[in-house]
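2024-03-11 09:14:02 DEBUG pipeline.ingest accepted 1 chain
2024-03-11 09:14:02 DEBUG pipeline.ingest length=793
2024-03-11 09:14:03 DEBUG pipeline.predict start
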Amino acid sequence: MRMLSWILTALVFTSIVTCHVMKNVFEMVIETHNDKDISENTLKEDERKFSFASYYQDHMVLQSSPQKAVIWGYVPKDKQNSIVEVFITPGYKRYSALAREDLTWVIEIGPVKSGGPYLITAHLQNDSILLTDVLFGDVWICSGQSNMHFPLTEIFNNQEEVEDTVNYPDIRIFVTNFSVSDKPVTDLGRDGILLPWSKSSPESVKKGNFSAVCWLYGKYLYKHLKKPIGLLETSVGGTPVEAWSSKDALKKCGLSDQNRVEALPMSGTDLTSWKSSVLWNAMVHPFINMTIYGTIWYQGESNSGAHTNIDLYNCTFPAMIDDWRKKFSQSGGTRQLFPFGFVQLAGFTPDFSVSVGFPDIRWHQTADYGYVPNHRLRNVFMAVAMDLPDFTSPYGDVHTRDKQDVAARLVLGSLAVAYSQNVSFQGPYPVKVTITPAELPYTYTQVEVEYTMDLEQRWLDGFEICCAFVKPAVCETGKAWWLPTATWQGYDRKNVTQSYASECSIENVVGIRYAWRRTPCPFKKCAIYGANNSLPMPPFTYHGKAFSKKLIGKDKYVVKLDQPVESGMPEHLPAFRMSDNPVPFYGNVKPTLEIEQSDRKFSFASYYGDNMVLQGQPKKAVIWGYAPLGSEGKAVNVQINGVNVTSSTIITDHLLWAVELGPIEAGGPHVIEAKLDSNTISLKNVLFGDVWVCSGQSNMQFSMSQVFNSSAELNDTHNYPDIRVFAVKDKVATVPLTDFSSDGILLPWSLPTPENIGHGKFNYFSAVCWLYGKYLYQVLQKPIGRLDSCISH
């Protein structure tokens, strides 16, 4: 941890600056087709022939292992209930399914390892259809408004970037055409495709006007992964998030798909109007049957003005992510918690004074946490772009031409969150604030902020405190003022000192914020970056309940802030919630197990059993187990007490699954069930409490039956049913094992009785272990798990 200190002095303002709603947002100009309904162009039943769905084409990328890819299409009216067979060559793998009553067929194939090219042939009686030059890799959807739509041909260094596309034949691209629909449609229709699946080349990116962010993200990702990448662009300039959200997502935020939504326009100052859900229905919903790896998103400008639901964006954006995940995973082979990356809005216009609009959207993009991933936005990553303005862009300064840095930062987040690689992907973030009085030649207030990493300072402005002179202190209501700081002292790699003439005492400091401007700084010149990764610190604001001061000593206040974690999972989850991310087994190293893959069945690891204790609050409990061959990429769902309060975890290539529970309050008993397809396994009479491992040699192994007063002590064990015991057999191994073998457990999890404590196999349970747990329970009055793992020599 490093300290960033500012010495702050509060100025009393005699007037309050009125906040003006931003209106000048310039979006790329596209044709206005709000009346064009794609549902009119979908195939009628009597028009259908044996075919693939519209976006299954030559040169495409299908999702590779560990997920299964989904292929679907149509049959003629007289062929319902007929068998459709699909063959993949080389390898000549065969898959089949019955045509459905709705005259569609759907087949899951694989999992297939990354690579190709493959020939995919579908047969229906005497008819055959082909997909040629198909690759298996990772499929990413790129969506949003004009900054996602912004083409590769218009960015900095565009000529070289376009010419370079030919060097990436394993990146394939696809672009939807602009369409709307009042109801969800299953396929893109006759006019729904602007660019069919194509090999990357100067000709294809120009023909498709292909997204710069999408292409560069795929290109940089490919350089790291060295596997085929499919990029599916579906974006429209000047659009609000509500147009990309289903009616189910909107309902979560008290909105309706029947409402029209105002959005800041493509150009000018007047608002445009969009009907909710029309882009979700026409340009996203058709793909839900397709298996994808993840999504990247660049949108928010059109929700940044007055009357654009700006205050709801902390609900509408997370709800949209949840809903996309739900619908893609229910309909196709996509993971339930597929990775989702987004770009935090870039700065624009050289006016560094505007503090409404974009700052609010940036904060709401993180669900008001300031960072991702977090509890609300799991398996989510972002690229901070507020320090990448382009004041001279000929396309309007909201359309920045430096998409290379945007994509590079997105890829860092993707590698860390979506691919679990050990890379630094976040800038610094504050974790603690200390407020003290001090004196130089005059009195001032010193605010010292502790951060998550070493710092680099590039700019002097950006920090503000909220100073309140009346109570209650609400920073946004005129009863308190945000006061900027001015740099007073020099900077070294550990400290920055700032001050200004003070009339704000330490008691009156009620908030802190950073980079809270539409454009916080010139290009790559915001105040704080990571010293080792050059990534900018994202904007933040803490006030009200989030800025809870604790008095330490006479004249010192401390505020502890939330902090991000370097993973796709938040640090803390509420009771009875689970992370969807698999718990890693030794990172990417294959675990050492004594159960061969061919012998595995769906089961818990050996030391999970009835009557056990799992770790309770404030820690999270981990449950893991095995899966049979052929289940790679499938979801394991977990329930507690019959309530589906969790999402799922994905079975790894090593046929392992793992989930994290909680933190869950101490108590019980609970029944925990894990489900894979039609198979269910359970743990009964489970308590949550504190789990202790007792280890050592003979004095730890010394039995309860051998202590003074052993008979009374053993008979007393009946009085402690909330203490559970487990004992391991003596065993050695030359390599670290991940689980016990079948003969590795002396005593499975059990309620304490004289028999299993003092008269069981080999006549022992550790006396020190039992008595420690007993005395601890008498003080804590919470379940205790005692795991005895010791050897006498």
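2024-03-11 09:14:41 DEBUG pipeline.report DSSP finds 13 helices and 41 strands in the chain.
2024-03-11 09:14:41 DEBUG pipeline.predict end
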